[in-house]
Amino acid sequence: MTVCNKKVLLFGEASELVGCKEITIQFPVSCTNKTLKDIIIEQLVKLEPLKDSLTVAIDWEYTDINTSNSQYFIKISIEPIEYSNVFDLINDSSIGAVSTFFGITRKYDQERIVQALKYECYLKMTYLEMEKIIKNSYQLWPSLVHIIVLHRYGIVPVGEISVAIAVSSPHRKDSLDAVKYLIESIKSQLPIWKKEIYEDGTFKWKRNNECFWLQKEK
C-alpha cells in the first residue's frame, strides 16, 4: 500500500489529549475524506473520546459538517448520499408518517446534455442558516418528530442525490407540508451556488430565481 506523510494540526481539546499541536501522520494515498478521521483516530488513539465530535478540515475547508440532537440531523458533505442512510436516520417506532424529498442531478437541461453539477457553498453559514430553517419548521408544525437534511457540495454526477430531506410526524399532513417548506427555504435562503457542467466541456452557473435577495430586486 502506497502511503504519504501529511502534517496534521491539532486544536483545542484534541491538542491537549495528544500533547502537541502538530504531528505527522501516514495516510494511504487512496484514502477518501470519509476515512480521514478514522485513520487519524487509529494512529492517535488518545483522540478516541472525541470520535463523535471531531471535525476534520483539509486546506482550510471542512470535509463535512454535521450536527444532530434528539430531533434533527444536518449534514453538508462532499460524500454521496444514499437513500437507505436517510431512512436509517429517521427510523422511529413512534411515528406514523415519513415524507421525503430527493433532489437528483438530471441528464438533460432543455436540449443540453449534463455531465454533472458542481455546488459551492459558504459552508459554515450554510449550516447555521439550515439550522434556523429547521427550528422554524418545528415552530410552524409542533407535531414534527424528526427532520433530516443532507446536502452535497462539490461535484454531483448525473443520477446522484444532491439534497435529501426527510420529515417524520404522527400524521402525514404536517410532514408533507414541512418537506415543501424545507426545500423551498433551502432554495431561497442558503448560500449555495450551482454550476451546470455539460458533456461538451462547457458550463453555466445557474441563477436561482427563488433566492430571497433576487426577489427583493423585483
UniProtKB/TrEMBL annotation:
Pfam families: MoaE. SUPFAM superfamilies: Molybdopterin synthase subunit MoaE. InterPro entries: Beta-grasp_dom_sf, MoaE_sf, Mopterin_biosynth_MoaE. GO terms for biological process: Mo-molybdopterin cofactor biosynthetic process. PANTHER family: MOLYBDOPTERIN SYNTHASE RELATED. This is Molybdopterin synthase catalytic subunit. It comes from Schistosoma bovis (Blood fluke).
